């Protein structure tokens, strides 16, 4: 439901965030959002599909890891780095 705080992946208004703050965009127009109070980073596709790509709602910390293994706390921004590899 739109307007409710939470951490729900989904499409359009079925997705829920808790204090989304910073946004980055990639070359294919996906948005990346710091969902600050959930301590997660969320991806929004051009079709409006929201998925959690880093962190786990309700858990915070400062550790590297893939997906829900990563622990985030007080994200202050996003920096997108493009690595180009020439062969």
Structure commentary:
The protein has no helices and 5 strands. With 87 residues, the protein is mainly β. The chain has a domain at 10-58. A 5-stranded antiparallel β-sheet has the order 1-5-4-3-2, with no helix packed on it. β2 and β3 form a beta hairpin.
Low-confidence region ranges: 82-87
Tell how many strands the DSSP assignment holds. Answer: 5
Helix and strand succession?
Answer: EEEEE
Q: What is the number of helices?
A: 0
List the helices and strands and how they pair.
Blueprint: E1 10-11, E2 20-25, E3 31-35, E4 40-44, E5 49-54
Antiparallel strand pairs: 1-5, 2-3, 3-4, 4-5
List keywords for this structure.
single chain; 87 residues; mainly beta; 5-stranded antiparallel sheet; 0% helix; 28% strand
TL;DR?
With 87 residues, the protein is mainly β. It contains no helices and five strands.
